[in-house]
Amino acid sequence: xxxxxxxxxxxxxxxxxxxxxxxxxxxxxxxxxxxxxxxxxxxxxxxxxxxxxxxxxxxxxxxxxxxxxxxxxxxxxxxxxxxxxxxxxxxxxxxxxxxxxxxxxxxxxxxxxxxxxxxxxxxxxxxxxxxxxxxxxxxxxxxxxxxxxxxxxxxxxxxxxxxxxxxxxxxxxxxxxxxxxxxxxxxxxxxxxxxxxxxxxxxxxxxxxxxxxxxxxxxxxxxxxxxxxxxxxxxxxxxxxxxxxxxxxxxxxxxxxxxxxxxxxxxxxxxxxxxxxxxxxxxxxxxxxxxxxxxxxxxxxxxxxxxxxxxxxxxxxxxxxxxxxxxxxxxxxxxxxxxxxxxxxxxxxxxxxxxxxxxxxxxxxxxxxx
Length: 370
Hints:
Elements: E1 3-6, H1 16-32, E2 37-40, H2 58-73, H3 78-82, E3 88-91, E4 103-107, H4 112-115, H5 122-135, E5 141-144, H6 147-156, E6 164-166, H7 182-188, E7 194-198, H8 207-216, H9 219-224, E8 227-230, H10 238-246, E9 253-256, H11 263-268, E10 270-275, H12 284-292, E11 296-299, H13 304-308, E12 312-315, H14 320-332, H15 334-348, H16 353-369
Parallel strand pairs: 1-2, 1-3, 3-4, 4-5, 5-6, 7-8, 7-10, 8-9, 10-11, 11-12
């Protein structure tokens, strides 16, 4: 079996989805080799992962993304040429017109572009609508990272149940051994104790509600445990950025993008990790925070209760008061917080990228032989 894998996300500035593809491919490529697994669009191999920019040199990135755009809007046969000799083409939504004479599969990380388009850019919504309408019917199988995504695809969006396979993400081993905190504290000017949230600065992450919730905390807790917001700039965030700036007087700190090698220590030092997102297909920061030993407060929506299980307090993400009560509960009851942290570390051990890779290979074999 020869597989062509769409690695276009590795050419872009991205976080969760890009981390998924890089982590998975770093397990698949060594075992399968470049003759069995090739990377579209004509990528020479797997480069180190960088969330804040492309993993490849600027000239290489521009040339390949330009080729994908030309294939999409000029109908050039990039996919057909790349897929020659392959038995299976594993797509993302970036290629709008995939070849028809080959078995096709894909990953749907989450359908929030369709369920809440107001939280996304117009171009992302347009691409995903086209994918769902024109590409999804052609697929021999679909991977989703959670039962919640599968349920939403079937019950809310009318997708078929037959080709949808749930394969959870994994967590890197380094999150279980965060290492010394001092370098990360110095690099990001972190306080001694803090409330932490991690994610792109964009509407779906629901940070405005989190800011409101923190204002509802007693002043003594706000001063003792300032909110630290870690994450790169996203989109549609002008009002959020203004709110963060106005909240600096209350101790709120936006530290921007955190390098992957520093993330485990940043998680591990958090008094509470809060992830109040409105929708997640999986919620990789939850898993990373659990592995690093942070007690969790998260949303009771989409995949988040499924991933966190008994390791988190779950709340209505649209209720600032409910969110504030959960945060205050863990800040005041450190025994409960420690118990949640220990439960989280044990639960996180169930999610490995090796298992994800093994299940993905089995999925490819079923799809190719269907």
